[in-house]
Specification:
By secondary structure, the protein is an alpha+beta fold. The chain is built from three helices and seven strands, in the order αβββββββαα. 33% of the residues are buried.
Length: 171
């Protein structure tokens, strides 16, 4: 089921998410909905707070061409980050049509629980590293625009407020 994606500014996007206590059928259904929503948008990542659920869960698939590689990360935790940074033009499904260069560690190691309840660990680089860090930021109530200067952040926020007003009028 495709879920509606919250648009910034929304107070639910600024909340620190609660850890997931156990993998339940409801959590599996949420993860499936989130993947469907992400692919439909289309995007490469989606965090639970973006669909109004304040749980530490994210989905991602950074394969642009070829066989999809959907990933579901429950309670992801950054356990190592390189000192080398990479700059990537980021966007966000909660901040449509707005993009900005963000610097993040080029290589990260993340630990998480999968849908079978097993602990996983993987090193991510390139778009995968950017994506997992971007989505983990959402779980801590941070948006990619929080990495920008005040003026740019305020300008994007005003555009999103205008977009939300226009959508409300059309509804």
């Amino acid at each position: 089921m495709i879920r509606p994606i919250l648009i910034h500014p929304d107070p639910r996007l600024k909340k620190v998410c609660d850890p997931v206590a156990e993998v339940t059928p409801e959590l599996r259904a949420l993860a499936e909905d989130m993947l469907e929503t992400m692919y439909d948008a289309p995007g490469v990542g989606l965090a639970a707070p973006q669909v109004g659920v304040t749980k530490r869960l994210l989905v991602m698939d950074c394969v642009k061409e070829g066989t999809p590689e959907p990933m579901v990360l429950i309670n992801p935790r950054l356990i190592w980050a390189s000192e080398d940074l990479s700059s990537y033009e980021e966007g966000c499904l909660s901040i449509p049509d707005q993009y900005a260069e963000v610097k993040r560690p080029a290589l990260v190691r993340v630990e998480w629980t999968d849908l079978d309840g097993a602990l996983q660990e993987r090193e991510f680089e390139g778009l995968w590293a950017t994506c997992v860090q971007h989505e983990m930021d959402h779980l801590d109530g941070r948006l990619f625009i929080d990495h920008l200067g005040l003026m740019k952040r305020q300008m994007i926020t005003r555009k999103m407020e205008k977009l939300k007003r226009e959508r409300a009028r059309q509804a």
